Every structure is written in structure tokens, then in C-alpha cells.
Amino acid sequence: MRKRNAFRPKTEEEVVFLETLKSEHLRLPAGADIIHPEQNGAELYTVFSGWAFRYKELPDGRRQILSIALPGDLLGLQASLFEKALYGAIALTDVELCLIPRRKLWSIFERMPAFAYDLTWLAAQSEAILDENLLTVGRRSAAERIASLFAGLFKRAEALGLVHDRTLVFPLTQQHVADALGLSLVHTNKTMARLKSLGLFALADGKLTIDNPRAMARFAQHFEKELSPRPIL
Fold this sequence. Notes:
CATH superfamily of the largest domain: Jelly Rolls
Oligomer: single chain
Shape: globular
Strand order of the largest sheet: 1-8-3-6
Number of domains: 2
Order of helices and strands: HEEEEEEHEEHHHEEHHEEH
Mean pLDDT: 87
Radius of gyration: 18 Å
Distance between the termini: 10 Å
Structural class: alpha+beta
CATH architecture of the largest domain: Sandwich
Number of helices: 8
């Protein structure tokens, strides 16, 4: 993964240090819990392959998906720093995870300040994504919300080499989309059908095709800067 253009290069010293941090390489099936809400002693994970999502849930079962994690993203930073996990995380597809024990986090700040900066950068990036999601749910129309979600995920996946011929394997169901955007399932279904009829995207057999990502982004008023190489732990 470090060799992909999406990530900043690492020195040999940094690679060796990374190997001392990682304790396990986990494989979990789709639907498996990675972090339980209010879990004690949750660990820190880097997604190696597959998709996952973070969520919070009301007592009556209504769920809000907070963010979608793709390869290279961290899961559990808050949970590994706080006494209890403030959210849950679930594998959306079969996933592979690199586990970094929470007890080793302090050594990053002690021994490798550059990695400490990377960790802070990744936390800030996560906050920026959440800010964009809040703007989406608070101010964008239903059609703009869906277009923004699809455009953002497509752009992130493209940087990871997951898009081929303008097509991405897309594991989100309409229920996931509704839970991420604060929409009802019926409203999500009708709005997605309208966007398809406009030719903004095609979605069939678990594959998302966007022939003109710029048009999709303009429709959603989703104007992200070009993605530059980012840190990976």
C-alpha cells in the first residue's frame, strides 16, 4: 500500500518503526464488528483492504453512519485514546486490518515525531471529512447529498487505484446511503432513481459508474481540492 500514489513515501527507518508498531494483521468478514460502541480498551487499526464504516446509534435503533473508511484510513483513534469508544465500526466488505495496540501510541510521540505529526494530520483530515458531511446533511438537498457522497467516495477510491474505466465496486446499499445522509429509505430510492435518469451515474450489480465526475461534483456543489499524497500508518 505504501507504494501507491495516494500515500507519501516512507524512509527505511520509518518502515522499520512501523513494523514494530503493528502487532497483528486481521481478516474479518463483511458485517463483522471492528469496534463496539462504548467498548473499553479498543485498539487502533489501519484499513489494509476493503471498506468499513463508523456509526452511532440511538436507543431505538436509528443509525447515523459517520464516515466510510477505505484502504489507508484509520479506525479507532478516538477509541484508543479515550476510556470508551464513542462510536462503533463495522466491516462493510471483507476487510484486512493492521492492528496497532493502543499501548504503543505514546511511543509514536516519544520516538518518531514525524509520525506523531502524521497521526495529527490524519485526525485533522477525518475532522475535515466530518465537517463536509455535516454541511451535506445540514444544507444540501437530498439529490445534492447523494451526489456529494458518491462524488467524494469516487474521488477517494480513484486515488487508491480502485476505479477502472470510470467504474468502482460499490458495496453501499440504499440503506447505507440513507443512514449516511439522514434520509428515509423511500426518499433515498426515489432520489437515486431521479439522479440516474439525469445520467449523472449508473449503479448496477454493486458497481458505480460515473462518466463525468466533475459534472457530479458541480451538481452537488462539492468542490474539494485535488487530493495530494497523504500519510499512512
